[in-house]
Structure formats: C-alpha cells, structure tokens
Design goal:
The complex is a heterodimer of chains A (about 210) and B (about 350).
Chain A (H helix, E strand, L loop, with lengths): L13 H12 L5 E2 L18 E7 L2 E7 L5 H8 L18 E4 L2 E4 L12 E3 L13 H8 L9 H13 L6 H7 L10 H15 L3
Parallel strand pairs in A: 2-6
Antiparallel strand pairs in A: 1-3, 2-3, 4-5, 4-6
Helix pairs in contact in A: 3-6, 4-6
Chain B lengths: L4 E3 L4 H10 L12 E4 L5 H6 L7 E4 L11 E4 L2 E5 L4 H5 L2 H6 L1 H8 L4 H6 L2 H5 L6 H4 L41 H7 L3 E6 L2 E6 L22 E8 L7 E6 L10 E10 L2 E10 L6 E2 L1 H7 L6 H11 L11 H18 L4
Parallel strand pairs in B: 1-3, 2-3
Antiparallel strand pairs in B: 4-5, 5-8, 6-7, 6-8, 9-10, 10-11, 11-12
Classes of the chains: A alpha+beta (about 210), B alpha+beta (about 350).
C-alpha cells in the first residue's frame, strides 16, 4: 500500500488532480506561448472584456486572457496553473501569496495581474534548477525543519529570498522584523529564522 | 468586486485628462468613478471588500516623468517623487542620516512586501482600517454619508481619542504622515485646474460632519511629489510606535519627535501623534509647553498632558490617552539622548 498520501489509487497526485480541476473550470484557459513577448499595452476600454496580459513567469512567457479584476495571485494559480503560490487571507495580511516581481518580494493578492504586464514574476516553482537541485533557501527550510503544515512555506521562502537580497538579514532580530509580513500559524518561527541564517551565509559565499 | 476598466496613462497630463473626463467637481477622490492606483495595497483590498468601487482604474505606474520615481536631496531639503516606494525611501542613506524620523516611520510601517509595493503618495492617502468602515454591512458615515456610525457604540478599542466628531471616530493609521506633518512637509499636486502646493497639515480633513471628505484633493488631482524642507536639526528625530504585537501592526499610539536642543534645553520641538487621532496630528500645545524648557521627565510629562488635554475617550479606547502620553514621554527622552 502506498505510504504517499499525495498519491491516489488512480496514480493521479492530489496536486495534479486539483490543478486539473482548476484549469478545466477556468473561463480563460492558459495559453502558453514561446513567442517573443511584445508587451502590448494592457489598456482597454470596455467593461467585462477580457484583457490580454503578457507575463514572464519563472523565465517563461505566458499570454493570459484575464478579467481586469483578476489578482496576480489568481492569475498564477487559476490561469497559469502554478498553484505553489498560496492564497491565505487574500487581503495582504498573511504573506502566503508572496512572489518576486522584477526581483522584489510583493503580495500577489493585492496586485491586479493586468498591472504586471511585461514584468518578470518568480514563484516558488521557479527556484529549483532545471535538474531539480533546490534553491539554497528551499534546502535550508528542509534542513531546519522550518515548517509544520507547510501552507505558508512558499510565501515564507519567497519572502526570505527577498529579505536576504534586500540586505535586511544582518541579524536574527533583523530577520524577525523584516519577515514579519509572513505569518506562520504553526509558529515555526525559530526554525524559519535559522533557515534564513543558513541560506544567507551560503549566499555570502561563506 | 465591481468590474472596472483599466487604463495606463502615459504621463501626468494624460492621467489628469482621463480622470477629469470621468469625474465631476463634486466627486470625492475616494468615491469617484475614475480612481488612480499606484501600489494598490490599500485600494485593491478595499475593492475586494466592496468599500471602494471605481468603474475605471488609472494605473499611474507607467507615467513617464522620471521625477516621479526619484528621491532628490538638495540644500532646500528632500523631494520624494510620488511613485517612490516606501521601502526605497526607508533604506535611502540620506533619508536615514538627515531625517531619521522619516526612515523610522517607514521602516516600522506595514511589511517588507507592502513597503516594496506601496507608493509614498498612496501611503499618505491610505484610508482608515476602522472595522466598521471595512465591513460594508455596518453603518458608516465615511463610507455611506448619513448612514450613521456603528463604531460609536461598537467595539472601539482601535479608535481615535483626538480629532473625532459625532459622525466619525475612525483612526488615521498611517505612520509616514506623522513624520511629514512634524517636518512641515509640502505636497505637490497636479489636476485639471493646474499645479499647486498643499501644506501637508492641510492635506487631510478632520471628519467633523463630513467624514466622507478625507482630503483636500480633487478627484482628478494627482500627488506628484512630497517635499520636506531642509532642517539640519532633524538629525535629532525619531518615530516611536507602540503596537499590540512587535511588528506588522498599526499603531495603538505613536509619536514623531524632532528636537532642536541647546544643551539640555529645547530651542524648538516638533511633535506629531499617530494611532490616537482621526488625521495626522500635530501636537502644537505640547511643542509650546517644551519651548525653552529643560527637557526631562517632568517637562516631557507636562508636554504629554498638554498633547492629550482635549482627548475624548469612548468605551474601549480610554487606555490610549495614558498610552499616548507615555509613548510621547519616552519618544521625547529617547530623542534627547540620541547621539547626533
């Protein structure tokens, strides 16, 4: 009997099942294009008319057809099928939806996707190398057991990478202050701080 | 959320022209059909909640004027372009050196992610987080003029003790604004009636009997810059913020303090209070109480008494009067002891 709770008897993982359901239900399916992104103006003049939005997500070009009301978070999850980024509060209070936009950590729930036209978006799916080697921050979270339920973890990892890149991880106090936008209901905070220290030191080439 | 048309004006005059076409002279910026968006951290939230319902969103992030994204330091002071992000200003070396109170107020506000998103102009225009304003099923004179105020007899622990009226007791939750009002900052704005300067202290309106009128801005007017005058003695300044938790929370009480000291005695003091008032709050009575005095615990306490002399508590927020006084005393003494 399988010990892997993520696999069902049909061989479908829970994740691909959920993703498939979501994509099939989405009104505007994903159109992935390898064509050179031309960044057309996302301005349009009719209500309720879908807008073509070009995003680069994890270095790949995406052409999405979106309602203007679609948050970047929903565009990633429901339209690009990238469900690694999590929806927690959907109001900018928890940090679960943190992604990098042009290298800066932001809350994807409080950003309309259409405002990110032509931007470079990095989600947790874009961190590991193509050979599957984890990003040092991902590895550090595993090494330090920096999660329990794991729901906030993608946001914590993206925020932690932003925090280190911004130069706000000098001390453990610094890390606690500059990571305060990421809430962990399981309270894995001490381990999260330890993981960030490890990845920071690695990034410094220690 | 209501459907909206999204536009990206190319420059300030285009943004003003579009806004002017879709708003009237009587429109409040927060209630107009066409509204501006920059970081979106406040507006997107309120659109999701149905508190804000613009029919047309004008995205200011593609405006081509470079000055909108620049921080310029000169002999006249410092000029922040309206689209500069909070995090960028908080980390700016000259801001930290010349105006610690500004850097503190930004660093202690929101979270790293929100500071990367939120523009400085949007930050000063942020709307209250009064629970009864946020939840549209409650009566709220600010959200629906004339509908009443559920906070008066509700759970009003977060609410204001200064500057309130019978119509509204919602707190102004920003931090940066306290630094700006203490430093006599000036707002530059452009609208269909031209460009103008607004003293920061005149940007926000007391609620009185029209709490839905939040600022002095017209619906087609855009803040383009925030200017802070040169003030060499502002190096002795800080912002102290007291919250329910250590970080990422709104102030229960806060104090922005700028001191010009002659030895032990106060040549000039600038004081603003946050978390306790309906608008960014300059505590002029406290400033006057300190002028020419030796700054010690006794004079600081007297100034704090003066700052809260007119405070009016409600059922759950009376603690803010004592907390606000202690916050100010501590901020004054810590600012006095700064090594500059």
């Amino acid at each position: 009997m399988s010990q892997n709770p993520a696999s069902s008897a049909t061989g479908l993982s829970r994740r691909s099942f959920m993703t498939g359901t979501v994509s099939a239900a989405a009104a505007a399916p994903l159109l992935t294009s390898a064509a050179k992104a031309e960044v057309p103006a996302a301005t349009h003049s009719k209500l309720r008319e879908a807008v073509a939005v070009s995003l680069r997500i994890n270095k790949r070009p995406y052409e999405l057809s979106l309602d203007t009301r679609t948050s970047l978070l929903d565009a990633l999850r429901d339209h690009a099928g990238l469900t690694g980024t999590k929806k927690g509060c959907d109001h900018g209070q928890c940090g679960a939806c943190t992604v990098l936009v042009d290298g800066k950590r932001v809350l994807s729930c409080l950003s309309f996707a259409v405002m990110n036209q032509g931007k470079e978006v990095t989600t947790v799916e874009g961190l590991a190398s193509s050979e599957g080697k984890l990003h040092p921050m991902q590895q550090a979270f595993i090494d330090h057991d920096a999660f329990q339920c794991g729901y906030c973890t993608p946001g914590q990892i993206m925020s932690a990478i932003g925090c280190v890149n911004e130069g706000h991880a000098h001390s453990e106090d610094d890390i606690r202050e500059y990571m305060s936008g990421n809430i962990c209901r399981c309270a894995a905070y001490p381990n999260i701080v330890a993981a960030i220290v490890q990845a920071r030191d690695q990034a410094r080439g220690a | 959320m209501r459907p909206f048309i999204y536009e990206q004006p190319a420059d300030i005059s285009a943004a003003v022209a579009i806004a002017s076409r879709f708003t009237t002279d009587d429109d409040q910026p927060t209630r107009a059909n066409a509204q501006f968006i920059a970081g979106g951290t406040n507006l997107a939230d309120y659109m999701k909640l149905g508190v804000a319902a613009p029919n047309r969103l004008l995205d200011l992030n593609r405006l081509e004027e470079p000055a909108l994204r620049q921080i310029r330091v000169s002999d006249d002071g410092i000029r922040f372009g309206a689209l500069v992000r909070m995090g960028e200003a908080a980390d700016h070396g000259e801001v930290k050196r010349r105006y610690p109170v500004i850097a503190d107020s930004l660093r202690l506000a929101a979270s790293g992610q929100i500071r990367n998103m939120a523009s400085l102009a949007g930050n000063v225009l942020q709307r209250t987080r009064c629970e009864y304003f946020r939840e549209t099923s409650w009566a709220c004179n600010k959200r629906v003029p004339g509908s009443g105020c559920a906070a008066m007899e509700g759970f009003n622990r977060q609410h204001a003790v200064l500057g309130a009226s019978d119509a509204c007791i919602a707190t102004y939750h920003g931090d940066f604004a306290q630094a700006l009002i203490a430093l006599d900052a000036v707002i530059r704005a452009e609208g269909s009636r031209g460009a103008r300067k607004i003293p920061f202290a005149r940007l926000h309106r007391l609620p009185r009997d029209t709490p839905h009128i939040e600022t002095d801005l017209a619906a087609d007017e855009i803040i383009t810059a925030i200017e802070v005058p040169a003030m060499p003695w502002a190096r002795r300044s800080r912002y102290l913020k007291i919250r329910d938790r250590e970080s990422y929370a709104f102030a229960l009480a806060s104090a922005a303090v700028v001191l010009d000291l002659d030895g032990d005695s106060v040549r000039e003091a600038r004081i603003a209070l946050g978390g306790v008032a309906t608008v960014p709050w300059r505590a002029r009575a406290a400033e006057a109480a300190l002028q020419g005095k030796k700054l010690d615990e006794a004079s600081a306490s007297a100034a704090a008494e003066a700052a809260f002399a007119d405070a009016e508590p409600r059922q759950h927020n009376a603690f803010k009067i004592e907390l606000g006084k202690r916050t100010l005393v501590r901020a004054l003494l810590e600012t006095r002891d700064m090594k500059v």
